[in-house]
Amino acid sequence: MSQRNLTLLTDLYELTMMQGYFKEKDANETVIFDAFYRTNPGGNGYAICAGLEQVIEYIKDLHFEEDDVDYLRSTGLFGEDFLEYLRHFKFSGDIYAIPEGTVVFPREPLVKVIAPIMEAQLVETALLNIINHQSLIATKAARVVYAAGGDGVMEFGLRRAQGPDAGIYGARAAMIAGCIGTSNVLCGKMFGVPVKGTHAHSWIMSFPDELTAFRTYARLYPSACILLVDTYDTLKSGVPNAIKVFQEMKEAKIPLTFYGIRLDSGDLAYLSKKAKKMLDDAGFPDAVISASNDLDESLINSLKIQGAAINSWGVGTNLITSKDCPSFGGVYKLAAILDKKSGKFVPKIKLSENAEKITNPGNKCIKRIYSRETGKIIADLICLEGEKYDENNSLLLFDPIETWKKTHLAPNTYHLRDLMVPVFKDGKCVYESPAVMDIQAYCKKELDTLWDESRRLVNPHEVHVDLSNELWHMKNQLLDSYHFSE
Amino acid sequence: MSQRNLTLLTDLYELTMMQGYFKEKDANETVIFDAFYRTNPGGNGYAICAGLEQVIEYIKDLHFEEDDVDYLRSTGLFGEDFLEYLRHFKFSGDIYAIPEGTVVFPREPLVKVIAPIMEAQLVETALLNIINHQSLIATKAARVVYAAGGDGVMEFGLRRAQGPDAGIYGARAAMIAGCIGTSNVLCGKMFGVPVKGTHAHSWIMSFPDELTAFRTYARLYPSACILLVDTYDTLKSGVPNAIKVFQEMKEAKIPLTFYGIRLDSGDLAYLSKKAKKMLDDAGFPDAVISASNDLDESLINSLKIQGAAINSWGVGTNLITSKDCPSFGGVYKLAAILDKKSGKFVPKIKLSENAEKITNPGNKCIKRIYSRETGKIIADLICLEGEKYDENNSLLLFDPIETWKKTHLAPNTYHLRDLMVPVFKDGKCVYESPAVMDIQAYCKKELDTLWDESRRLVNPHEVHVDLSNELWHMKNQLLDSYHFSE
Lengths: 486, 486
Hints:
The structure is a homodimer of 486-residue chains.
Chain A lengths: L11 H13 L5 E7 L10 E2 L3 H10 L4 H9 L5 H8 L6 E4 L5 E2 L6 E6 H6 L1 H25 L3 E4 L8 H13 L4 E2 L2 H7 L9 H5 L4 H11 L4 E4 L5 H18 L7 E5 L4 H14 L6 E4 L5 H9 L6 E4 L1 H4 L10 E9 L4 E4 L16 E8 L5 E8 L10 E4 L7 E4 L4 E5 L2 E5 L2 E2 L6 H13 L3 H4 L8 E4 L1 H12 L6
Parallel strand pairs in A: 6-7, 6-11, 8-9, 9-10, 10-11, 15-21
Antiparallel strand pairs in A: 1-5, 1-12, 2-4, 3-5, 3-19, 12-13, 14-15, 14-18, 16-17, 19-20
Helix pairs in contact in A: 2-6, 3-4, 6-7, 6-13, 10-11, 11-12
């Protein structure tokens, strides 16, 4: 991503607003924006946040080149003083964020930007674009991996991804959420993740017959010999020819370490069971039976229930586009403006007739509350920065809408963790992104902090995200202060 | 796109197959691959093909840099002889394609690659990725623009797009299909398309009150003054304040050329009608009433039926992700292999139990048949390269599956057009991509060649794509040649 200048990857209104702040306000007014989302995608019980590394690269690289300025001038919307300001633009603010691979819930700030208003405004669009995309795909991949129940899931979607970045960063997100490999070679190179794949129908078709194609492939790649068996007829041609080749390998004393077949069409339940029996009968009970073809978590789930003899899953289109829910509704909302006189943040709120769309004001942080006994998440608490909590005291949680719903945590039964970490301080990056495979290991542990009831694919139990007493009162005071006459 | 080296943007199996061809076959064997799709996305009656310019850039730029070769070596899959070959790799083949913005139908080759098998194989994944994405979004945008019935549609989806490229090239595709502008500044710079936008809720919230925010905006941008009226209360605060500002502008003799309001939440039918009445009553009947908020073609259609007083549409998430159908199922299939002895292409076919998945073999071209009387498309005919047609003769068309369904075109009542044009010859680009706004103008004419029955949003009439007599017989001979014993 860093090879491209993405500074203009923004909505025009960010720039027209910036010029407005520049001309009409104290352009250095410090504000707080929160990036958060309102609903878990695809009916899931949580999301996996992802994309922070690319947000960091984007922020680090922010600068208007001469041809960017020339282009903006050509729109006729911008004055020379503002364009001159852009020429020297760099990000000078603070950013806090939840690390990639963390399990997150609706209404929690995933990223908090504290910066001069012009800077905070500019970064909105690209920041949302990146976080929305990768969090969407990571969440979808977590569902698919969950459905596969321990079998390996490979990400195969590049050709159906919504452009090159969707393929590259979608595969990155899928790896974070637990895929064992991707077909995407560029993603493998960029992020050091395993790349996987064997051959296509065209390989088979380019030889005079299927058996010759299989034999040739086995000779070339004996240690990862997965043969695609459905080019002509899976059970009458593909599987028998594959077995013939495995027998030849056995006779030639070639070690059959990782070998098997791939099914890419037809009734996968039926074909896999038939193929499994043929492979077993021929003395190849440990052959991998890999399946692909428009799979998703529901289909994998259904195939498992049907007893399909598949132990490796290649998932393409439905994962890389998050087909049933192709967008993650992340938004970026103003939460506070610094009052220079008092040095304090004045909270800001966005009203809506829909209670769920009313924003949480102020300078916030998130405390995750774990049970000391089980290590599982009890709830998340959105607080105001600076609130003090002591695990030796009891803690009262209450639902922010239905406030009579209360939970009382006894002292020393829970553990608190701050979810957001500093990423930029005064425009300088203070965070080092972990390697993708390390994020994957972290994400696996994160998923273990959820009860299985919150991980199930349908109607998961919703983890509570509560507001601290202080934040709740601030929010309600602000709400009460708005009145419009009938 | 050309700033990045996308040569490794491919599935691993393309490279393992390439090495297989390199080591085991005549690596210079010339083959033909067709890129086509099987079903129009989202229940539409056609698709708009798009992305060719980016495919051309990708093909032109294909080369393995030293660090690509190093990375491939590190996988342990590739031999030094093959890696040395890659170091000197460049595309040397021919490519034919249907120009961007053309109305296309299922099973028609959108791109045809005639090249040495190794080269043709490598480019599969990126070519499909690019064409699938842009054709998907162009088709979706054509539906949205159709629903808007002449009102302007603006593309506002960058923040919800699946990564930066999805935002940039998605906006490009949306422009091709008739959007009047995009919020995406980088797309505007890269492709010379109009950029649009005004301000967000954060602009309003950053001022002490809404009226001050509106006044400031109107002072800054008097000639494109669309005020966002739903931050606090649309009808009690937003619209009255907007009217106050328009009145002040009028009194100050500032010309109200392009001005109005934007609704971004609530019941758009109700609010727009109420707002329209308030604006009319105040003497502003020509104010633009713009709407956004999770719009798509169905919702726009419904709002129009309800008599919503909206005349400008900002469409984001649902367009940029093609939410109801986020993938375009383009595939890339081997169609023929050149027999060196005879100098003739030997047709190849991929079988499937599903008749629709059986490929069309041979070196093909597409003739579009127009009615001379109406200028509308009668049908498309997939033929073999070299077949001769004469408009002075009659033409018999028949359904390739239900062959008794026949249509007889009388001499000189129809007009034939070859859809595919040469794009690369011997590795050299021979095609110049038009500017995006020129493609938009072409696309508008293309859409006019469809009967309205094929453009409607639900259950459109399907345009026939037939096979020539010669191709039909070749295909059936090939099918008959495969037999697998029970």
